[in-house]
Design goal:
Low-confidence stretches: 124-134
Number of strands: 12
Order of helices and strands: EHHEEHEHHEEHHEHEHEEEEHHH
Radius of gyration: 20 Å
Helix content: 25-40%
Mean pLDDT: 88
Structural class: alpha/beta
Strand content: 5-15%
Distance between the termini: 20 Å
Length: about 350
């Protein structure tokens, strides 16, 4: 389950470094005052209560100080690249999940219009917009297959529906209650033996140039939405959650220092939050670069020590039960992306 966090999720707010006072001095008005300590050096934002519960049950991990390979600080370019998996904005017309599925002969179908870039493959792009978020029942699919068993085109469409990933996209006006509703629908579909293996959520609102807040405020509110999606999936998926991994995806992080409007500007390094029963234990995974000025990217941002695409390729290979090198070849243009299996699943 991929949860896209649009706007630049602040990894230093979601998972603040508490090993010294550098961060608190850099953010006197937007620091997290009551972080939930999880290691001697790191803590969680207080809105991540479900994530903390999963951490306590050895079902959550964090890959800190990572980012996609983009340093241009443009939302439009960054979000395009986080979905395409490439390195040149607007160059690739397909997404890394779509290409991975296509490489395995699995077609994608979106229940949002239009299909998000991340799910687009090179061909067979199908979209289905259900009424009131209802999907065709298994009985309906069986009847259609029986009545049109000689129709090759329809047979292919029905096969697509059965294997589809699902996209749970969030309009700008969608409330937290609606996101929980979408998560409940996704949980039902993901738990179905004939349902999809992949779901994509989309949560916006992380571009906090002013009044970002610390324990509360806009950034904390958006983190709470992410946390509620995780909690709903955990509560609704039953035993299927044991075979699930949820990962966050964002275009970049935020600057370490607060600005004059008690917010942060576009940055670079951030954190990937992971949860689910596929994780063997809870831990912080990081080649931590440090927060001293000499360690910051361009003297202002948390640096990235690992290409985030390595992490996503490793997770996709595990979920789809295929080889890491194949995912890298199919989804990420055969880039030099090391296998992170031992670090994430070892």
């Amino acid at each position: 389950v991929i949860v896209m966090l649009r706007g630049g999720m602040d990894g230093l707010t979601a998972v603040p470094f508490i090993g010294n006072d550098i961060l608190s001095k850099a953010r006197p008005d937007i620091g997290v005052n009551k972080p939930i300590k999880i290691t001697p050096n790191f803590a969680l934002h207080p809105m991540l209560k479900n994530f903390k519960s999963l951490w306590d049950s050895q079902q959550a991990s964090i890959f800190h100080a990572t980012s996609i390979p983009y340093t241009g600080r443009s939302h439009f370019e960054g979000q395009y690249l986080m979905e395409s998996g490439g390195t040149q904005p607007y160059y690739d017309k397909t997404g890394w999940v779509g290409r991975a599925l296509e490489g395995l002969g699995v077609k994608g179908l979106s229940i949002s219009l239009p299909m998000p870039l991340i799910l687009r493959g090179g061909e067979d792009l199908d979209s289905f917009m259900p009424s009131k978020n209802r999907l065709p029942s298994d009985e309906t699919l069986k009847l259609l297959e029986k009545d049109y068993k000689n129709d090759e085109f329809l047979s292919n469409v029905l096969s697509t529906i059965r294997k589809r990933p699902i996209a749970m996209m969030e309009p700008k006006s969608r409330s937290d209650k609606d996101m929980k509703g979408l998560a409940k629908i996704a949980a039902q579909q993901l738990s179905d033996i004939n349902g999809p293996s992949i779901a994509v959520f989309d949560i916006g609102g992380f571009d906090t140039h002013a009044d970002q807040g610390g324990d509360f405020g806009q950034h904390g509110k958006q983190l709470q939405q992410f946390d509620n999606v995780i909690g709903t999936l955990r509560d609704q998926m039953g035993h299927s959650f044991n075979n699930t991994i949820i990962v966050s995806l964002t275009e970049f992080g935020r600057t370490m220092n607060q600005n004059g409007g008690s917010g942060t500007e576009h940055g670079y390094g951030t954190a990937i939050l992971m949860a689910g029963g596929l994780l063997p234990k809870s831990r912080i995974i990081s080649d931590w670069p440090g927060l001293k000025k000499k360690d910051l990217f361009e003297g202002r941002d948390l640096n990235s020590s690992v290409d985030a695409r390595s992490i996503y390729a490793t997770i996709m290979a595990r979920v789809l039960d295929t080889d890491h090198k194949k995912i890298v070849k199919d989804a990420f243009f055969n880039s030099d992306l090391p296998d992170m299996t031992k670090r994430i699943f070892g």
